[in-house]
Design a protein that fits this description.
mainly alpha; 20 helices; 0% strand; elongated
């Protein structure tokens, strides 16, 4: 019993002793004499490592060391020690005295640690942004994560902050991306996306990143479930962001799921009826699928798709009638359609009267379709002829070649000769 009483008396004496020392520590802190303040708290803790008030003041002193350019290098892990001391002070605070002092301090010691880690991360991030040094981004990542660690502690005590520190988590994700740590970036950005965070009162644009980046990350990883999940969420929260349309087109194209690809185009066209780019891309993609697919590929809904191609190209021309690529593609479109019909005619070998008539009708139909190709190809050619840039030469020669093939199919040798001359003189024409 006497031993217990002696221990209790000894503890009271030490606590009372540090209460006096605390005045000195406060004075040293006010005067920014951090080395002297450190000597006081270190001495007190060496006498009683569990003293909550000594630990509390240690957290203040060591946090001050970490924030001061003159002293911070002398204790590289000052913030870590400060945070550890603060937690022990709170845990050991059976009388509530530390909590009362914390209230008087307006929670400044713990928020200094939270902000100190953040400021250190921001400095490293800005240095990395200027230098491109990944190592600095890695330092920023560590410091920001430490800030969040302190923030989670603050939130756990219900002192402040929210369950998800959105801006900080976003910044951690950015740091991980720039540090080349993709898996870690995914962990942090998922926190935002899974919480359906699509912006703050003052910033919506920045919060597109989690959804775009996760969509790209999981597509690259061939994780279809997560790719579709985060792409769908991104499209939901940012419906005007065309990234999600583009990435879904890439996804279906890579899988060679053309039914889904063209269905996606239908949705996009409905949302962007005046988009020259989408109308043309839809037509161009459909044309390539029909005419340039690998041998043996089954073309689904060929006739309906060919009709759609023509419609989409005509929509482009209503907006940009002189567009070279659209007129050129329409020329190819009617040329190929004419050749398809001509091939059907050539396949008829029978000499029966009804088959002979059918063949003649098909040849006449093919001629009409081939003639439809001419004005579009000529429009593309006349527009590009005004140029003399070397970069246009290849396209010019391709359009001239199309004209030759059209007139060859129409058995107009004189016209073929004219376009052959154009083709031969192209090198001299496009010189700049």
């Amino acid at each position: 019993m006497k031993k217990i009483l002696l221990t209790g008396t000894f503890f009271i004496m030490l606590s009372a002793l540090f209460a006096q020392d605390a005045k000195k520590v406060k004075e040293y802190l006010d005067k920014k004499q951090y080395d002297k303040a450190k000597a006081e708290v270190d001495a007190a803790i060496s006498k009683n490592p569990a003293d909550p008030m000594a630990l509390y003041y240690k957290s203040k002193v060591y946090a001050a060391f970490a924030a001061d350019p003159q002293f911070k290098t002398s204790i590289p892990d000052a913030r870590e020690q400060a945070f550890d001391a603060f937690k022990k002070a709170v845990d050991n605070d059976k009388s509530g005295k530390v909590y009362l002092v914390l209230i008087q301090d307006q929670y400044k010691p713990i928020f200094d640690l939270y902000g100190g880690y953040y400021d250190a991360g921001a400095a490293a991030f800005n240095n990395a942004a200027a230098s491109g040094n990944k190592a600095d981004f890695d330092i920023a990542l560590t410091e920001f994560k430490n800030s969040d660690m302190v923030g989670r502690y603050i939130y756990s005590k219900k002192w402040a902050l929210s369950e998800l520190d959105t801006q900080l988590v976003l910044t951690i994700g950015k740091s991980a991306i720039n540090a080349g740590k993709k898996e870690e970036a995914a962990i942090w950005l998922r926190k935002l996306a899974d919480a359906n965070i699509s912006g703050t009162a003052n910033d919506k644009l920045s919060y597109q990143l989690p959804y775009q980046w996760l969509s790209y990350y999981y597509k690259d990883a061939k994780d279809d479930a997560n790719f579709l999940k985060y792409t769908s969420l991104g499209k939901k929260f940012f419906p005007k962001d065309d990234y999600y349309d583009a990435v879904m087109l890439d996804y279906y194209r890579d899988k060679k799921d053309y039914d889904a690809l063209f269905k996606q185009y239908d949705e996009i066209i409905a949302n962007y009826p005046d988009s020259v780019q989408y109308h043309f891309n839809y037509a161009n993609e459909g044309f390539i699928y029909v005419y340039n697919s690998d041998a043996g590929t089954k073309i689904n809904n060929k006739e309906a798709l060919l009709k759609t191609i023509g419609i989409e190209l005509q929509k482009v021309l209503t907006i940009k009638p002189n567009d070279i690529n659209t007129n050129w593609l329409l020329g190819q479109y009617y040329y190929n359609a004419g050749i398809d019909v001509k091939d059907m005619a050539n396949a008829i070998r029978s000499t029966k009267p009804e088959d002979i008539k059918k063949k003649a009708d098909l040849n006449a139909q093919a001629k009409d379709i081939l003639n439809k190709a001419i004005p579009y190809a000529e429009k593309a050619l006349s527009t590009i002829e005004a140029s003399n840039k070397k970069s246009d030469k290849s396209k010019y020669k391709s359009i001239v070649d199309l004209m030759q093939r059209i007139y060859t199919s129409l058995n107009q040798a004189d016209k073929v000769k004219i376009y052959q001359a154009k083709y031969d003189s192209a090198d001299a024409k496009f010189i700049n």
